[in-house]
Amino acid sequence: MAEHNKLLIAVMILTVVVLIVTLAFNGASGVGPPLFKNNTGVLSRKYPTGITPSSWVFSIWGVIYTWQCLWLLFAFINIFRKTADGPAYVSPMILPPLLFIAYIFNLCFNTAWIFLFGNEHIVLAFVALFLIAFCLYICMFIAYRNLYRNGPLLQKQGRNIEIWMHRVLVHNGLGIYATWTTIATLLNVVMTMVYGATPGVGIEDSGTVALGILTAELAIFIVSDLFFLDNYSRYTVTPYMVVCLALGGSIDKNWDETKTNSIFSAVLLGIGVTFLVVKIIVMIWRHIRKPLYPTEIAPTTAGIKA
Questions:
Q1: Are 131 and 104 spatial neighbours (Cβ–Cβ below 8 Å)?
Q2: Which is more confidently placed, 158 or 140?
Q3: Any stretches that span the bilayer, and where are they (predicted)?
Q4: Cα–Cα nearest to 207, from 47, 46, 51, 48
Q5: DSSP code of 224?
Q6: What is the structure's pLDDT at 120?
Q7: pTM surpassing 0.90?
Q8: Greater model confidence, 181 or 305
Q9: Measured distance CA(119)–CA(33) in Å, rounded
Q10: In Å, how far from its chain's centre is CA 19?
Q11: Span 163-178, mean pLDDT?
Q12: How many helices (H) and strands (E) does the chain have?
């Protein structure tokens, strides 16, 4: 029978502490001095990119952090739940210490980005944002792999609802965070090219480069998600939603039918919306016709107790 894992509990607690610190600095960044030269809103206006979304889009941060709190709460609740094989969080261990360590690094880079961007270190801020997204993709890889490997055991234990909690809270929670920081990284690519390089590149050309990178990333993501990673990512839909939101917000703020990047963004938005619909249809069809586990359409909580 599995026993409590002290290392895992310790890194989970540390994750919560670091998250609280990160949230505190995020809140302070909206104020500005004395910690930062300017608040993030002022800096976004000071360093325009031509493709930055409208200010209302950035309220997604509230959704992102709420989702992070929910999946962490789910992880902590499992410490106090029991199965016939031991504590639920280690029987089997789906969210291991390595995932939380990678997540802590993401939070540290998040805080670093707040200070770097708030004090106008544009190039270093770009590096920090890239590392945030990189750490989150590591977390997603671990979460996907472990649920896929241990899903049959969870089902055997009658924990189908828990499988869904991983899909909805953990996978989609990490997905919305990783996708948004990926897009934010591309915005920082433009800032780096225009304001951090010597000589700087034009805003329109830099925006085209960023949208071109987004196109390549979107193509790779869609193909891999629908055709190669279905067993892992079938129920992760938030990346598609974030792309549509970001592009819609960009068009809302920057639309000019005479500019290439406006047309480019509109085409990408059309592709994003189309494949969001395709993703949902394919997900439902495969869930009904090709379920990953034989009886998961009828979830149960048998075999587990508080």
A1: no
A2: 140
A3: 54-77, 98-116, 122-144, 174-197, 209-228, 263-285
A4: 51
A5: I
A6: 87
A7: yes
A8: 181
A9: 10
A10: 15
A11: 98
A12: 11, 3
